[in-house]
Amino acid sequence: VLIKCPNQMVRQMFQRLCMHVIQRLRSSHCALYLQGMEEGEDTSKLGEASCVTRFIRMLLSLMENGARSHLRHLTEYFSLLYEFSKMGEEEGKFMLRINAISSMVNFYLGQNSAAVSCQTDSPTEEAGGSGSGSTTAESGGDKLRPGALDKMVALVAGLLERSRDAAGHLALLEPDARALLHAKGFPFIYQQTRDCLNLQQTRSLIFALCRWNEPLAQKIVNMIFQAIAKHSESCGPFFKLLTLLVEGSGGGAGATGGLPCFTQLVLARLWDVADVCPHAALEWLALQVPRNKAAHAWALRTAERWLEAQLLGAGAARVRAAAALLLVALVPSQHFRAGYARARPPAPAPHPHHPHHPHAAHAAHANHAKLPDTAHHTLHQVYTMLLGKLKAARKYTDIAVHGTMKLTAYFGVMSYCVVSRVEKLMFGQYFNDLWELYHPAISEPSVAVHPNKQALLTFWHAVSVDCPENVQLAVANQRLTKHIAFNYILADHEDGEVVAYNRAMLPPYYALLRLCCRRSGAFARALAQHQNIHWAFRNIAPHAHLYPGAADELLRLARVLAARGGGAGSSGGAEGEGREAAAFRRSTLAAYLQDGVYRQLWVAGLNGRTCWSTLISAFCTLVENEDDRLYVVYNGGLQMTFEDNLAARLSVVGHNLKNVSCMIAKVALHSLHAVYVEGAGGGGGAGTGGGAGCVRAELTAALRWARALCRTLRTRRDHKEARALLLACKDWPECARRLLTMLNLHHRHNHLRDAALGVLREIVMIGGGAALGALVPLAAGAAGAACGSRSRHAHVCGPRSQHGAHGAHSAHGAHGAHASLPQHAAIPHDKHNAHRLATSYRPYHKFIVDSI
């Protein structure tokens, strides 16, 4: 019933019944438990005077006869023995005298070495022990073993404590001592740890054995490390046991209650297993240093022994990551450690102040709460050690031997340590070491994806932002100014891995160049003429949908290079600097205009809106005066600015100026206009839908840019020539109609309406009577359509179509299909409404008057 019965409830009821009987008999039988224990007498007769002790002896004998075949049902069996041993002093002494410890040890070790053939085939029976081939508690199919045998370990630990003499030393009988203490390698402790039975009870057992016995503790720790070395792939339970031993013995504060200081014993052997399982050893130490002062001090003291070997030299990436985690754990700040644990590669964004920009991650980290003085002191110790390894890092740059990722964890943790300007200034004395590490071993190899380079540039950028001292060190280095622009970059826009790498690596690289240009005019002038910069504008900047951060940094760099003076501290006459800046603007504009990259993207239908935004941003950055705008016009800029898939079929060279008006109108004709105006029909008033809101600013900027180009064409060219160019475009009436539709937008978006009016005004002033002849019928048709709409909806609009009620805006924007057109009706005088009507109609009136 107690062992073979497959019903757990029945076994539990029988266990409680047995304990109830034993408790009822204890008062009359307790004195009989130890009869026959006289000195030198055979213990086989011990307990014969009581039925209770005879019953317990019979239970112990079951371990040798039948219990092994029913291992999963032994929970109640060992629970009964455990509860009996705790009932009093007599019960404990009785079980010690009959060698219960050695019986259980032999049972457990015999179970682990028993042949599988001795197990039953019944599905309700246990499927065998862990055996010599098991590697984890679950690998032998015996997931219930911990629950079944943990009471056995607790019983052994409890009996050990009861065996102590008056001096506190263990007084075990020879069979029990031989089973626990004298067996080579402590097999009972070893096997139960490997099986992960109940590590809390295993710790109690070891404490019971080692109290007032430090040499024995040393032997057990040695056994644990030998097991770790032997089972490096499944050493987790042994490290968990080490954690319990260290924390349970005072956590490094010294021996307590007779227990030896397990922290010192464990740390003395920890690096002995670093060669076979460094990842587990580093992770274990990283968990200990925040809560164990002895481990913390020891890790700092021995850093020279493990820092380079594990953080830079280790072949496995997870080992290097564990070493970096250990370094962060050394800083006594929970906030600092938690920030590193949460760190993830951020998604790129078009602006470095955006919280997800790749090289803004560490700037965001610098906004952490101020570290305590003790944490800052330790951080500087760690950071100084890391900086000191920049020279040693050169050994790991040979790609053929070490690959391209050995230094990623190293630079990653160094970047995380830069939390203030102090750390940036500390880097100054190591600047030459960084440059010699970077060039030429990392910068020049023709490797498409080079994570070491990405990590190094990210760190370099982190220590340069808001630190002009470090930037000055860079521009003062002649070798750097000569070679930093030579950086191998593969622009393979079809390879996802290469794209992801460039998306992360290029922004900090171009940001570094920008910082140097701001610091040194000479460097800026040299960089403006460098072939690699012009390559970047041709091959990286047009693909803002792939490299948003890099494209934005290139535009910011172009803004610095295009500024008159060429950068801070520039020398030479202002006239010469102006010519240099103009030459850079022209050559960069040529990269955008003449290579046809944008045309190819639009023809392929590849993210044309992003390309449009990038192109407008580039023009706003590089076009400074009317000469620049004429340069854009004569090099196909208008066609590129306002072209769609159909217009892309036209020749760039043959129709540079002939398509001026067509291209202007194409702004509204195609993607931006469709999203903003036509898309608004399904989601509320014009310009209120999600898509319209996204493109409103882009559409306004496009119209203003188009107006500026047209004005330049009108003022800098003969009127007859400009008019002929406009009329030569067959699509301009349709374009004008599209622009007219933008005049019916809700009056809240006056800036967009005014921009459309501005372009139409330029068309009229260029086209003259011919333009008016085409625009008047279009306008009349639009007015007729509006009148028809008014007559159909007069009962809705009422006498005040201008919505004089103050709450009309929000209700109309949320529920109406389009904003009602302004109307006039015979109504009482209302100054507020009259002002709104005048504001609404005045731009149209001015447009007509100017046209006449």
UniProtKB/TrEMBL annotation:
Residues 804-818 have a biased composition (Low complexity). Residues 119-145, 342-366, 797-818 are annotated as: Disordered. Residues 2-99 form the DUF3517 domain. Residues 351-366 have a biased composition (Basic residues). It holds the Pfam family DUF3517. It comes from the Eukaryota. InterPro entries: DUF3517 (IPR021905). This is SFRICE_015516. It comes from Spodoptera frugiperda (Fall armyworm).
